Amino acid sequence: MKKTSPRSVDRRKFLKTSATAAAGFFIVPRHVLGRGFIAPSDKLNIAVVGVAGIGGMHISSLKDTENLVAFCDVDDRKAKKVYEEFPNTPKYKDFRKMLDTEGKNIDAVIVGTPDHSHTVIGLAVMQAGKHLFLQKPLAHSVSEVRALLEASRKYKVVTQMGNQGASMDCNRSITEWIQAGTIGEVRRAHVWTNRPVWPQGLPTPVAPEAVPSELDWDLWLGPAAYRPYSSKYMPFNWRGWWEFGTGALGDMGCHLLDPAYRALKLTVPTSVEANATTVWSDFFVESNYPDSCPPSSVVKMDFPAREGMPECELIWYDGGIKPMRPAELGPNEEFGSWSGGVIFEGSKGKIICGEFGDGAVLLPTSRMKDFTPPKPWLKREKHEKNHPLVWAEACKGIGAATSPFEYACPLTETLLIGNLAVRMFDVKYLKAGKTPTSWAPYDYPGRVRMLWDSKSMRITNCEEANKFVNPTYRDGWSMAV
Questions:
Q1: For 453, which DSSP code?
Q2: Contact present, 221 and 238 (Cβ < 8 Å)
Q3: Which of 19, 99, 103, 119 is 20 to 30 A from 299 (CA-CA)?
Q4: Under a CB-based contact definition with an 8 Å cutoff, are residues 319 and 220 in contact?
């Protein structure tokens, strides 16, 4: 274990204290503090769990401003590029061993692993007293979301979800437009994405495959139920499997819903319902692929009135499905952005924008000619294009996180409730004592409008859905706070 200097101990005490006062902190010049005191502008000691993919992007965004003191990844193949760039940084496969061994030298941790392992890692990080940047969506189930929120309150660390639009100016501008009443009361919003850009609607792999020598498959599975290794699950396509990912809604919802969620002051829905693609393996033979997310879906979420805003509905589209082009939009005018977009329908007009609230325009677009945006009142970020750096500075008492768990947990919960409707789409219940056939004997309620009771954390009218609210972990894993 590394020997820790008195300087680093003082530094950690400062970082822990400053985090609780981040919102009102101001920078004090070093000469005022005197010799031996560490100014908040000094570098943060950051460890990264999951260094390939998005984790590697975060490493690049922070390597010139912070200290990267430890790396952890279960797959040496994917981590190779980062490991070669930082040959002297300690490297681990098990995040628990990393925290035990390097903990005294770590101030904060970035987690960029698949969805199913977010919570167990995030909870361990916060329990160790480290600040946490956790990729979107925060969790894999609603019970995990609640556990993360409870832990963030208990351990009082600085938290941030990895939805970078939360730090961008365009997101704040669209919030100001909506909340200033530019289009009146908004009772409906449409949100869409081009995801999935990976395979979905697939049969569960059964052909045996050898586990690559560089991969610790057991650690990659983490709390998920054991299943044999398949190259169809990783390194990227895990997003389309319910055991590991959360489909298109989980992957992109935290980005695309954020402008609407923030501007409309949404909480969690009271009801959800979904349409989803049916996969057929032969004429009138419906495929039963319960492990794989559907190729496309449409999800309607209903929200109650809140903070002076009326009740509203939010409709999500993925898999190439989009809302119909608004009548006010010209036949060849740009319809959202490449990756998706948002349409706000108000009592006095409509607004269309791109993924993060970017490129927002009033409809018809001719209204923009004489439009004067409301005077900005929301704080703009100095590092709006570097979401991890916004968080790193907040850890040092400079500014505040832009997607802390107090905000990000309800947003994530909303997406996961929507996914309950996707998983239960076209509900069939097997009649007691009967053997199923392609036609009967099923009870067939079809598409169910699911009613969510936030207090009891249950769908009250479809008990089958509740097994996904609080799933069972594999032996040896838990989310005790």
A1: E
A2: no
A3: 119
A4: no
How far are the Cα atoms of 192, 292, 330 from residue 448, in angstroms, in the given order? 22, 20, 36
User: Which pairing describes strands 45-49 and 67-72: parallel, antiparallel, or unpaired?
Assistant: parallel
Q: By three-state DSSP, how is residue 221 classified? A: helix
Give the C-alpha separation, 306 to 224, whole Å: 37
Question: In the structure encoding, which two tokens stand for residue 355, read together?
Answer: 């993924």
Contact between 400 and 391 (Cβ < 8 Å): no
pLDDT digits (tens, 9 = 90+) for 143-161: 999 999 999 999 999 999 9
Residue 443: both structure tokens together: 């009870």
Strand 186-193 relative to strand 271-276, pairing: unpaired
Tell me how far apart the alpha carbons of residues 13 and 272 are, in angstroms, rounded to a whole number.
Answer: 45
CB < 8 Å & 24+ apart, contacts of 251-254: 251/137, 251/195, 251/196, 252/193, 252/195, 252/318, 252/339, 252/340, 253/137, 253/191, 253/193, 253/316, 253/414, 253/415, 253/418, 254/136, 254/137, 254/161, 254/162, 254/163, 254/408, 254/411, 254/412, 254/415
Q: Record the pTM.
A: 0.90
Q: How distant is the alpha carbon of residue 430 from its chain centre?
A: 35
Q: Return the percent helix, strand and coil in the chain, to nearest 5.
A: 35, 20, 50
Rg of the chain in Å (alpha carbons): 23
Measured over the CA atoms of residue 159, residue 162, residue 163 and residue 166, the dihedral's sign is: positive
Distance CA 99, CA 265 (A): 37
Choice among 272-276, 287-291, 443-447 with the minimum mean pLDDT: 443-447
Cα–Cα nearest to 211, from 194, 228, 189, 225: 228
Cβ-Cβ contacts under 8 Å for 176 (sequence gap 6 or more): 373, 374, 376, 377, 378
The H helix count followed by the E strand count for the chain is 13, 19
pLDDT for 455 equals 96
| Res. 337 pLDDT band, cuts 50 70 90 | confident
Q: 3-class DSSP state for residue 273? A: strand
pLDDT tens digits along 381-420: 999 999 999 999 999 999 999 999 999 999 999 999 999 9
d(C-alpha 418, C-alpha 301), whole Å: 7
- pLDDT bin (cut points 50, 70, 90) of residue 368 is very high
What pLDDT band is residue 425 in, cutting at 50, 70 and 90? confident
pLDDT value for 444: 62
Laid out side by side, the sheet with 108-111 consists of 91-92, 67-72, 45-49, 108-111, 131-134, 159-161
